[in-house]
Amino acid sequence: MVDQQAFVTCATNDTYALGALVLAHSLRNVQTTRKLAIIVTPQVTNKIRSLLGNVFDLIKVVDVLDSKDEANLTLLTRPELGVTFTKFHCWRLTQFQKCVFLDADILVVQNCDELFDREELSAVPDVGWPDCFNSGVFVFQPNEETYSAIIKFAIQNGSFDGGDQGVLNMFFKDWRTADISRHLSFIYNMNANATYSYQPAYKQFGKDVKIVHFLGHIKPWMQMYNSETGRVQPDSPHSFEHLQLWWDLFMRQVQPNLTEECSGIAGELSKLQIGPIAPGSSAFIQSSEARRYAWERGQVDYMGADAFSNIEKKLQESIEGSKK
Ligand code: UDP
Ligand code: GLC
Ligand code: MN
């Protein structure tokens, strides 16, 4: 029985796969008795797949599903989330009787195997619109017919947010009113900024939290990290406490196995070295994608990566590259 139940996540590239690795280790650390499965798309490199193979029981390769719904994704201000339709493939994991889907930007901090007592579709209200559920955590039952019905529904109706959450909330429309047992407690999908947005409640209930979700543009892997002190930079929409937990786990159980064969942020973070730094180099490590986000938010590192001399060098390299 327990053998036929699994936690499931999804990654369409090495960067999200890095998040999935942290998630899987966090589930093992809290001694889950359930299987771990991941849906990946062909873009995920062989190197990362081999690391996923060390911690997941099942890796299922599927084609990318993309809503390509630019209008609604623009409303959500997240153009990258069309590919979250790929999550729908989780209904095809029919080797399992019941599953709990978890986004790859999630950290499990306490055992939550009791979620398997719930029925499809159970989920936590979304903090932005609590009449909708957040699709970062949901209990479901794999079934080919449900999969086909969701795809058909998505083709016919599209998604009001351009991503999977819009489709699933319309498909499982009665979640809002039908059965309160399908409403999960916030402790199973706490938005990592709730510690600031409702501090007194966090003080009262925070110790019960089991699943932390780093929802939004900025992910833990984009955060500045000081490799000398082992501390994450506190400047973030997410709570420092949970970011630090994520990084502690990442540095201990995931980062040592990354290599430059990994692509995206996973490749860049493979170069991180903990401990004393060489004279003249910075202790702060941040991937280039993360730097771009920081730059766009107006956080310019004038003395470091964004110094004029570095930008000039980068421009020169690009010009040289395009001449070839
Ligand atoms: N995802 C992915 N590749 C992407 C974007 C998203 O694999 O390029 C998957 C991944 O599992 C991720 C989930 O879809 O956790 C939802 O995206 P995200 O967590 O970024 O959305 P948010 O929770 O911030 O709204
Ligand atoms: C959300 C959810 C995420 C989902 C996305 C797109 O905010 O957190 O899981 O993939 O919206 O619908
Ligand atoms: Mn998420």
Short descriptors:
3-stranded mixed beta sheet; 34% helix; 6-stranded mixed beta sheet; 324 residues; binds uridine-5'-diphosphate; alpha/beta; binds alpha-D-glucopyranose; Spore Coat Polysaccharide Biosynthesis Protein SpsA, Chain A; binds manganese (II) ion; 2 domains
SSE blueprint and pairings:
Elements: E1 5-11, H1 14-29, E2 35-40, H2 46-55, E3 58-61, H3 70-75, E4 98-102, E5 106-108, E6 122-125, E7 133-140, H4 144-157, H5 164-171, E8 190-191, H6 194-197, H7 199-205, E9 211-213, E10 225-226, E11 231-232, H8 240-254, H9 264-269, E12 284-285, H10 288-296, H11 308-323
Parallel strand pairs: 1-2, 1-4, 2-3, 8-9
Antiparallel strand pairs: 4-7, 5-9, 6-7, 10-11, 10-12
Helix pairs in contact: 1-2, 1-8
Bound molecules: uridine-5'-diphosphate, alpha-D-glucopyranose and manganese (II) ion.
Would you mind describing this structure in some detail?
By secondary structure, the chain is of the alpha/beta class. It folds into 2 domains: 2-208, Spore Coat Polysaccharide Biosynthesis Protein SpsA, Chain A (Alpha-Beta Complex), CATH 3.90.550.10; 218-323, no CATH class. It has 11 helices and 12 strands. The chain has helices spanning 14-29, 46-55, 70-75, 144-157, 164-171, 194-197, 199-205, 240-254, 264-269, 288-296, 308-323, and strands at 5-11, 35-40, 58-61, 98-102, 106-108, 122-125, 133-140, 190-191, 211-213, 225-226, 231-232, 284-285. The strands form 3 sheets. A 6-stranded mixed beta sheet has the order 3-2-1-4-7-6, sandwiched between helices. It has a 3-stranded mixed beta sheet with strand order 5-9-8. Strand 2 (35-40), helix 2 and strand 3 form a beta-alpha-beta unit. Helix 1 packs parallel to helix 2 (46-55). The mean pLDDT is 88. Residues 9-13, 16, 80-81, 83-84, 87, 103-105, 136, 215-216 line the site of uridine-5'-diphosphate. Residues 81, 84, 103, 134-136, 161, 163-166, 215 line the site of alpha-D-glucopyranose (GLC).
